[in-house]
Amino acid sequence: MIENKKICFVGAGAMAEAILSGLLDHKIVKPGQITVTNKEDRFRLDELVYNFGVVADRTQTYSSIQQADILILAMKPKDIEKALLDIREWTRPDQLFLSVVAGVSTATISHFLGHAAPVIRTMPNTSAIVGLSATGMCLGDHVRDEHVRLARTIFESIGLVFITEEEKLDAITGLSGSGPAYVYYLVEAMIKGGMDVGLSYEDARKLTLQTVLGAATMLSETGEDPAVLREKVTSPNGTTARGLDTLRSYQFEQAVRECIRQATQRSKELGQMFSIQK
Ligand SMILES: NC(=O)C1=CN([C@@H]2O[C@H](COP(=O)(O)OP(=O)(O)OC[C@H]3O[C@@H](n4cnc5c(N)ncnc54)[C@H](OP(=O)(O)O)[C@@H]3O)[C@@H](O)[C@H]2O)C=CC1
Ligand SMILES: O=C(O)[C@@H]1CCC=N1
């Protein structure tokens, strides 16, 4: 429980919602401790107020920013410079800044703020909504133990937290930040494959979901190497062997590895486009 601290979200989209719903579900804060702000979409703020009971400051955004102890930056990378320049005169070095923005460095955030507030950069994922985010986190200048404790409490309410060096954040973005989309893509393909061989959409979806959930739970609960688990499914000359050979012939592994490399590269590019260069 985080008592007596006000949290203000700057940006009220998908990630902001995922984080605030985790905080409220786990009773880390009360709805009245959270304020949401965005650029212009008032209907979106109304929706969050209606669904979660949080506070939206539509007319005095800057006063909610001034009153906040913790600001969570949750806008797109292209919007962060303007957002920070708009609010900076209402911010102070004794506030904690937590960013979920892809690619943008802690040094850039500090630069745009123009003062010595502690900044923690994170990369969660949308599974935060069900409390299963894998969140990478790195610490900028001026961050003290009490800030790390607060950031941990917030992000552990939405899943696993992994503190690391800033150089790793692009890789974490390419792997686990974007990762849910890769899994959904695989699931889409498996459902289509099931339909190709005669199953209904509903049955293919149900069977695929249970298969993915079961496989993830096996990995997590047995701690086994995925290759070992894969081999246990694969009877010599059986059905799995034929399926896996087909995936290999389409260079499945190379495709997935290149996908993560490219997503990581894109995170670096976003960093170059929207971060100051040291
Ligand atoms: N979606 C994902 O899977 C993940 C996203 N991220 C990162 O989270 C960040 C947000 O992503 P997501 O929630 O998907 O994005 P959304 O597009 O859903 O939301 C972006 C929000 O930013 C607001 N915004 C834009 N400009 C400003 C501004 N100048 N001042 C205040 N608010 C502003 C928008 O307000 P308005 O609608 O009024 O324009 C909107 O509420 C991104 O940087 C992304 O890299 C990180 C991990 C996973
Ligand atoms: O696609 C993106 O850029 C964001 C960052 C990680 C997940 N979504």
From TrEMBL:
Annotated signal peptide: none
Key words of the record: Amino-acid biosynthesis, Cytoplasm, NADP, Oxidoreductase, Proline biosynthesis
Family per record: Belongs to the pyrroline-5-carboxylate reductase family.
Lineage: Bacteria, Bacillati, Bacillota, Bacilli, Bacillales
Group of enzyme by EC: oxidoreductase
Domain called Pyrroline-5-carboxylate reductase catalytic N-terminal: residue spans: 6-103
Domain called Pyrroline-5-carboxylate reductase dimerisation: residue spans: 166-270
Compartments where located: Cytoplasm
HAMAP family: P5C_reductase
Gene this chain is encoded by: proC
GO molecular function: pyrroline-5-carboxylate reductase activity
UniProt source species: Caldalkalibacillus uzonensis
Protein name: Pyrroline-5-carboxylate reductase
Pathway: Amino-acid biosynthesis; L-proline biosynthesis; L-proline from L-glutamate 5-semialdehyde: step 1/1
Function description: Catalyzes the reduction of 1-pyrroline-5-carboxylate (PCA) to L-proline.
Reaction catalyzed: L-proline + NADP(+) = (S)-1-pyrroline-5-carboxylate + NADPH + 2 H(+); L-proline + NAD(+) = (S)-1-pyrroline-5-carboxylate + NADH + 2 H(+)
Its EC number(s): 1.5.1.2
